[in-house]
Design a protein that fits this description.
By secondary structure, this protein is mainly alpha-helical. It is about 65% helix and about 0% strand.
């Protein structure tokens, strides 16, 4: 039963719970005119715009949800909020480093909001998670403001050429939905399915139609990957709630997702990785929902998520084996009355298969392009490491590899070419590739904080990895055996696929977390499940271990925010 949306402070929390997707889309939409996703476009007019919008929303919230015991308190609170918003906009307008100012102001506002509610109302999980998500959106927006088309991107190029993801977006911008009449292998990155590029091109077209110059509009469409990254936080929250996480374990898991550098970095990326991540997490969510309630209204969104995920990037297939597993289990359980489920599977196939494969099938028939085509840079690439023994690539962690904690590629000045896929995961999860990355060569100010963040993340991930395995093996009240196998298959397919990809294409640019991003929320979930199970134990060692893990999560989140704010301080 849905909670009734009352005009009380609790009603505001109910609104957040019931419409998180809509509120996130609205917030990102309101931020778009403020600088058009580029700090260089933040003017006095844009500050006035955002100040007026935030002021109107704040005052409306005070009076609609009665954030004050009487009229005088409401007026006082409204006045304080308007004064703070005005001071914030003046600060952003006058300081040179606007992205840095936004990061600091967001932190102050979040702290003030928590303190206000702490002294006037009851603190609950919804409030804390809402603040974490808001701060997560803020640091993503800050990163987007100081990241342009040619800054720390993957295979993007720029909008002045016809190649790369930027050229591919420009193609659709100029040609509408006209499919290429040429072999897509002849243009770098055009082999990708087009859904992400369509959405980027559509927003680009809309903005230019509204009078925004092409150069500014091409920067502004970066708001879409930021939106996808922000929505991934919401979808992850839904997955965590489906496995009955609550309290401090839920908050810890959400904090990891909100402040994980991978999702900050790819919020500013023009390529298709972040949208793929959103669809994969949504497919994991709807697959679990369908298993628990195998009806048509649940299988249709599942089919759309997988189909659109594959129409974004073919590797969206990686959630399909686990989904096929639960399909089979449900069919076996209902083998005496199978027609209802066979009908659902038929609808699933009718939606998912054409969406997911039409691009590859067209290119196969028209240009004889293999269905699983991926460009191979070959052994002549400066990033090639296939000539090294496999055992060394897999099990070597010495030889100075950890002296440089950033993804290493020699042609951009790094000390050596990354060749260990495992270290590639750890390094790129925090800083991306050296060719694109946040590192202390480009940003000396993180010479101390960068390695601290890296080593905290290594410890946190290793513990979380073990916790995921433990939580999938042990029986629990939150999931049955089939559901644990569902998550285990998803995790295994993604991890094994990543290593197989690294073996097939042994290049430094291949060893990147972007090919295995769903592992992050799954590990966070595993950690939280173990923490939640331990909550029932009052043994001193269990208490101290919990405190240590919460402290580690807090340190990770704080250091991530610090590092990416430090970088903003110099941009």
């Amino acid at each position: 039963m849905k909670e009734k949306l009352q005009h009380t402070p609790e009603g505001l929390f109910t609104l957040m719970r019931r419409h998180p997707y809509l509120l996130t889309i609205l917030l990102c939409g309101l931020l778009l005119p403020f600088g058009l996703a580029d700090r260089a476009n933040i003017t006095a007019v844009s500050c006035i715009y955002l100040g007026v919008v935030l002021g109107a929303i704040s005052v409306a919230a005070v009076f609609v949800f009665h954030l004050g015991r009487n009229r005088s308190e409401k007026l006082l609170l409204s006045g304080i909020m308007l004064a703070c918003i005005t001071a914030s906009m003046l600060t952003i307008g006058f300081v040179k480093n606007k992205a840095f100012a936004i990061a600091i102001i967001a932190l102050i506002v979040a702290a003030a909001a928590v303190l206000f509610i702490r002294f006037n109302y009851q603190i609950n999980d919804t409030l804390i998670i809402a603040v974490l998500i808001a701060l997560g959106i803020a640091i993503r927006f800050v990163y987007v403001l100081y990241t342009g088309v040619v800054d720390r991107q993957h295979d993007v190029g720029d909008f002045t050429s016809t190649i790369g993801h930027a050229g591919y977006i420009k193609y659709w911008y100029e040609n509408g939905l006209k499919l290429p009449d040429f072999d897509v292998r002849s243009y770098w990155q055009y082999y990708h399915p087009p859904f992400h590029h369509w959405t980027m091109a559509a927003l680009l077209k809309l903005l230019t139609m509204l009078g925004v110059s092409f150069d500014k509009a091409s920067e502004a469409i970066q708001i879409l990957p930021m939106l996808y990254s922000s929505l991934t936080m919401i979808v992850s929250y839904r997955v965590f709630r489906m496995v009955k996480l609550k309290g401090n374990p839920l908050i810890a898991a959400m904090a990891i997702i909100c402040f994980h550098p991978t999702f900050i970095i790819f919020a500013g990326s023009f390529n298709n990785d972040m949208l793929l991540m959103l669809f994969m997490m949504a497919a994991i969510l709807w697959g679990l929902r369908w298993y628990r309630e195998p009806v048509m209204r649940n299988i249709i969104p599942l089919a759309l998520c997988i189909g659109l995920g594959m129409m974004t990037k073919l590797s969206g297939w990686m959630v399909a084996p686990a989904v096929a597993f639960v399909f089979l289990i449900v069919l076996i359980k209902n083998i005496k009355k199978p027609l209802k489920y066979i009908g659902q599977f038929a609808v699933f196939g009718i939606i998912c298969v054409p969406l997911g494969l039409w691009w590859q099938v067209r290119n196969l028939l028209k240009f004889h392009i293999p269905l699983t085509y991926v460009p191979d840079l070959g052994s002549n690439s400066v990033m090639y490491s296939g000539n090294m023994p496999l055992a060394q690539r897999l099990f070597s962690f010495g030889n100075g590899q950890l002296d440089f904690v950033y993804g290493s590629i020699t042609f951009v000045g790094a000390p050596y070419n990354e060749y260990n896929p495992t270290l590639g995961l750890f390094k790129t999860a925090m800083f991306d590739e050296c060719a694109n990355s946040i590192n202390d060569v480009h940003f000396p100010q993180i010479h101390v904080t960068g390695p601290i963040l890296f080593w905290i993340s290594v410890v946190l991930f290793l513990i979380s990895f073990v916790c995921f395995i433990v939580s999938m093996i042990r029986k629990s009240d939150s999931m049955n055996g089939i559901e644990r196998l569902y998550f285990s298959i998803t995790f295994a397919v993604i991890l094994v696929s990543y290593y197989l990809f690294c073996f097939a294409y042994p290049l430094s640019c291949t060893y990147n977390i972007r090919y295995a991003m769903p592992l992050i929320p799954l590990c966070a979930m595993g950690l939280a499940l173990v923490l939640q199970r331990s909550e029932s134990s009052q043994k001193p060692i269990a208490t101290w271990l919990r405190r240590a893990m919460y402290a580690l999560c807090a340190a990770f989140c704080c250091m991530s925010y610090v590092v990416y704010t430090q970088v903003a301080a110099t941009m």
